[in-house]
């Protein structure tokens, strides 16, 4: 299994690149890289071409489509179609080592994905999910139909949903106010 850190967004609501924000005494992308490394063969950062220099010499997959998270996930499967991908959004700083361990330990590789069930919406959380190789066909079909929502794929598919024991793990930080409330900065 490989990992993909989704860092290619424009961060318009935040006003600055969310992957570079400091949590855990380091940029968020580096924290996630170190967090995912024990569980995955290779950890890649999904980014735009103009962001690549932000990630030193770490392995990047350039997303040229810029259609949101689905573009990054599609690029990952184009790179390694026979591998599972643990996909992680860069704007979830409350993810901890036990989050990843819980997800990996509950993985059901016979389904297209293993995802946390979001405690508020009760939908799968597509941006902290293990996407299995058999999901690639659904991702391609969605893209060809100009539908770019990973959530819609998961809502229609055979997904192993796991209750999230700590809802804070799934908290997205999207605005300067969210950042301030999370870090106290």
Automatic annotation (TrEMBL):
The N-terminal domain determines nucleotide recognition and specific binding, while the C-terminal domain determines the specific binding to the target protein. One of its GO terms (molecular function) is metal ion binding. GO terms for cellular component: cytoplasm. It catalyses: Mo-molybdopterin + GTP + H(+) = Mo-molybdopterin guanine dinucleotide + diphosphate. Transfers a GMP moiety from GTP to Mo-molybdopterin (Mo-MPT) cofactor (Moco or molybdenum cofactor) to form Mo-molybdopterin guanine dinucleotide (Mo-MGD) cofactor. Belongs to the MobA family. It holds the Pfam family NTP_transf_3. Keywords: Cytoplasm, GTP-binding, Magnesium, Metal-binding, Molybdenum cofactor biosynthesis, Nucleotide-binding, Nucleotidyltransferase, Transferase. SUPFAM superfamilies: Nucleotide-diphospho-sugar transferases. Its main location: cytoplasm. Its EC number is 2.7.7.77. Residues 3-142 form the MobA-like NTP transferase domain. It is found in: Cytoplasm. It comes from the Bacteria. GTP binds at residues 6-8, 18, 63, 91. This is Probable molybdenum cofactor guanylyltransferase.
């Amino acid at each position: 299994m490989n990992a993909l850190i989704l860092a290619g967004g424009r961060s318009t609501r935040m006003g600055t690149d969310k992957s570079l924000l400091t949590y855990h005494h380091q940029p968020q992308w580096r924290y996630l890289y170190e967090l995912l490394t024990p569980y995955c063969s290779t950890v890649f950062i999904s980014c735009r071409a103009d962001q690549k220099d932000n990630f030193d010499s770490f392995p990047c997959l350039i997303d040229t489509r810029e259609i949101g998270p689905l573009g990054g996930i599609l690029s990952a499967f184009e790179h390694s179609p026979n591998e599972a991908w643990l996909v992680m959004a860069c704007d979830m700083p409350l993810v901890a080592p036990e989050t990843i361990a819980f997800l990996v330990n509950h993985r059901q590789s016979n389904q297209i994905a293993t995802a946390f069930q979001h405690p508020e919406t009760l939908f799968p959380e597509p941006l902290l999910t293990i996407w299995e190789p058999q999901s690639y066909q659904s991702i391609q079909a969605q893209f060809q139909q100009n539908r770019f929502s990973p959530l819609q794929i998961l809502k229609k598919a055979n997904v192993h949903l796991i209750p999230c024991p700590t809802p804070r793990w799934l908290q997205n930080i999207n605005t300067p106010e969210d950042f301030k409330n999370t870090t106290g900065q």
